[in-house]
Amino acid sequence: MIKLSLTFLFSLVLSSCAVINEPYYYNEVVLRNNTNELLTDVKIQSMKTNRMISCANISPGSQCSDKFAKRKYQQAKLSISWTYRGQRKHEDNIVLVIPENMSRDIPLRGVLIVNKDGTLTIFVEPGQP
User: Would you list the domain boundaries of the chain?
Assistant: First the structure.
């Protein structure tokens, strides 16, 4: 009986570890322009893989996005640059933080918003399968 209980307990621990270690996936990146100005030459680049998404122009109140086959999220640092009101801006070492309650069942969407004051808001949200 003790052996059976220990086997069951060990199996339970292993299965719970498997759930904890399941990776997150993403399949879309969205760049939103919440300013009243045109954003130009917008680029997001993974500092680990050098993959890049770029948008030549994003009109005020609109967005640019790229959807692709799902990829494993590796917590790679990102670099983003854009031109706003004639000034080149950039942010490096950005890491998208995934909330603990986020489902692993569907791919995530990374969202980067340029606000009216030129600052960034960055978050992840559930995407579309």
Answer: 24-126
User: How big, in percent rounded to 5, are the helix, strand and coil portions of the chain?
Assistant: 15, 50, 35
pTM for this predicted structure = 0.78
Contact criterion met (CB below 8 Å) for 92 and 100: no
Contacting residues for 21 by C-beta, under 8 A, at least 6 apart = none
Smallest CA-to-CA distance from 65 within 125, 122, 98, 109 is with 109
Q: What is the pLDDT of residues 16-40, one digit of tens each?
A: 444 557 899 999 999 999 999 999 9
* CATH architecture for segment(s) 24-126: Sandwich (2.60)
